[in-house]
Write a structure and sequence with these properties.
about 150 residues; alpha/beta; disordered N terminus
């Protein structure tokens, strides 16, 4: 049984918390406890933010100018990841959606996609495969600087 002191803010996914931190210059919160998300039905054992592309190509075979559809929840994390690919000569036209990112690929609005993958079934159905894992997410309990569990 957990004993929770005052100043605990809540429980969230580590992916969302890390994205939240990108928007703060001086965060007053911290991760108090990480709870491992272990699910053998998940493709990577836990939710994983991934770069997805056509299943019949590799990233090296893609043109250097790409349209990328990004889940709005991960704008800062994606920007940081894409900057690494820009160092390799890629440029991106970015489309941000609140869901349906894989549908943007299916409807030829995007060449690649950045979104959370769980089972991988919807990505496979859309004709996508994982090019790179960006970040895997556990569950975190977050709180103020002095919060304790």
């Amino acid at each position: 049984m957990l004993s929770i002191e005052s100043n605990v803010l809540g429980i969230t996914g580590e992916d969302l918390y890390r994205e939240f931190l990108f928007n703060l210059k001086n965060p007053k919160t911290r991760i108090i406890k990480t709870i491992s998300w272990d699910d053998n039905t998940a493709l990577f054992g836990k939710p994983t933010l991934c770069l997805l592309g056509p299943k019949d190509k590799s990233l090296k075979e893609m043109p250097k100018r790409l349209r990328v559809c990004i889940n709005k929840k991960y704008t800062k994390t994606s920007k940081k990841f894409l900057s690494r690919l820009e160092d390799w000569g890629f440029t991106f036209e970015k489309l941000y959606l609140s869901g349906a990112t894989e549908e943007a690929f299916v409807n030829n609005l995007a060449d690649i996609v950045i979104d959370i993958i769980y089972s991988g079934k919807s990505a496979e159905k859309a004709g996508l495969r994982v090019y790179e894992r960006i970040f895997s997410s556990d569950i975190v309990i977050i709180g103020g600087e002095n919060a304790k569990i």
